[in-house]
Hints:
It is built from four helices and 20 strands. The chain has about 280 residues and is of the alpha+beta class.
Amino acid sequence: MVINSVSATQRSIHEVELNRSQVISGRVSDVITSAGFTYTEVDTGKEKVWATCPGVISLKAGDMVSFSADIPVHNFHSKSLGRDFTTIYFIQQYMTDKGISTITTPHGEIEKQQMIDPAMPSSTATRGEVSRGDYLREASLKGLNGKQRMLSEFKGKPLIINVWASWCGPCRAEMGSLERLAQKYNGREFNVIGVSTDDYHNKAMAFIEQTGITFENYHDSRLILENMLGANTIPLTVLVDEQGRILEKVRGAREWDSPEIVDAIGRVLNIKMTEQDH
């Protein structure tokens, strides 16, 4: 399994205004690129903090940046860098004085962050994968922060399934936006569930507890759902209609509660999006 960063599609995301109460700003003091991620040390004037974002980001020491502080990860070990971080923020994008940071491809081209449709096709299908337009098979879901259920119990209402792992940077980066999406719409217009492909139950539970995820998540240690959903790259998010038919597969991290993505979800699921009252 490999991690899939945000890829080019036909429709670009508009800039998303950051929540000022959850933003870290400062001057870049160090930049490290490794294994398809850009790590930056940011001097806020009070302290130095680290953040990482999928892609090769065109940043350099001295640049001013801001980023959403939704997902801090403590005591994180980077295998590619061979070093530990006391705290590091897994983020979707950097904001600079020039706008949203861009991602440089290996060929020097520039990609902007993109909307959910059409989904990037996987290079090879997984064994037993259910394709877009076909119906999901029955499966038993082993609960992490919820009870054990059958997949068929979710029929009758559209379903969004997010496949993740605790070690996957882009999965961590988008989890905060999935939680906010679930807080606004879960159980009303559609249901949101997560599926962890972690080898160990305790690793998945530790991530859920650390990030405060409240929507239901399940453990797929035997990779039954991974194969059926086609999760040869993660994160993978699958949009399913009320009858269990796959409408769309979205590969790579997204800002799931942004107005543009919420509108796209409504169009794919053919529903009117109305936020929950709190």
